[in-house]
From TrEMBL:
The gene coding this protein: LOC120262829
Residues annotated as domain F-box: 11-56
Stored CDD domains: F-box_AtFBW1-like
UniProt protein name: F-box protein At5g49610
SUPFAM superfamilies: F-box domain
Organism: Dioscorea cayennensis subsp. rotundata
Domain of life: Eukaryota
Pfam families, per database record: F-box-like (PF12937), FBA_3 (PF08268)
Amino acid sequence: MEASENMSSLNFSNGFLPNDLIIQILSKLPIKTLFRCKLVCKFWCRLPSEKYFIDLYSQTSSKNPTLLLEIICTLRTRSSYICVDRFSGGLGVSLDFLNDRVKIRASCNGLLCCASTRNRGVYYVCNPMTREFRLLPRARGRAITRCQPEYEATLIGLAFDPKSWKYQVALAGFYRPFGRRPHDQLVCLVLDSDTNVWRRFVTCQYDEFTHMNRNQSVFANGLLHWLTYSCSHVLALDLKDEVWMKISLPEEIVAGGLVCRVYLLELEGEVSVIQMSGCWMNIWVLKDHVREQWILVDRVHLRCIRGLATNAFPMCQTSDVVFLAAQRKVLTYGRKDKVWREVYAEQDSSTYPLWFSAHAFQSTLFPCNQGDFLE
């Protein structure tokens, strides 16, 4: 169906350019520029709120991924945020509209899940580009105890499906009686954007996670995925059936042990892991969840970034480009032209390493402040 048919309700005629062409041009603009263009006419004003255009904008922006960096400075009380793409460098982003001090815990298809640092157990789902947000309900009405996963959730995942315009938030933590070590019981809470109610279930499961891999969750095929500390398997949560499962990693990765570094990413709707071993970067994709079939799709030599390879961490990727965050630089590798580029450099020496709080991101117009989305 053409754009003019989807937007027929606007009854706009330009006289110079067809509507389809105007829509295609506007879908490639940055969101801030697009919102300024709303002053041109009623047609352009309504366009960012139309379901067809929101879907089109998401499809277009997915081809231009960005890396969302939280710049944490030891000399400042508040963090700053920068979106880095492969063309125009860094663009400042603010989360001040939340009126709270927050920590980004998950990112999925343009939406963020943020945790309040002032009030434990308080979470937001927001779109930083449109400045819309939803404050999630507390999981329980009674006082928070250390036995609840929302107090100090080990894992936080955000699953946003652009096709259905629905999202789910998952909190998972290990049952810990006060003053004792955690038990091997994984308590999980899942919230659906339609019902806005938490569902709770408990599983006999125990795994360890580092700071990095517990914050790198990947949503694909209806599952949320996390890489375990041992780098021997991926822990996946089936959001529909509320079941946890383990997916073994390729034997080549497991055999590498502590010699290689492994990172969990998403690659155009599929689960991917990137293995950094010696002077090589190997990119694997999970083609079959049931059979645990992994395919090696790319193998890159790191000789061109020899001085940065030991502290460069893959953070997001597409079939065209891979973003890597280092101590104070962001690099990209073009998978087609095989060219390395430096796209961002942080000058402040008092900041935390850029890979410490970096998230895959893309610009989107999807609303997140309403329980029932546009039809």
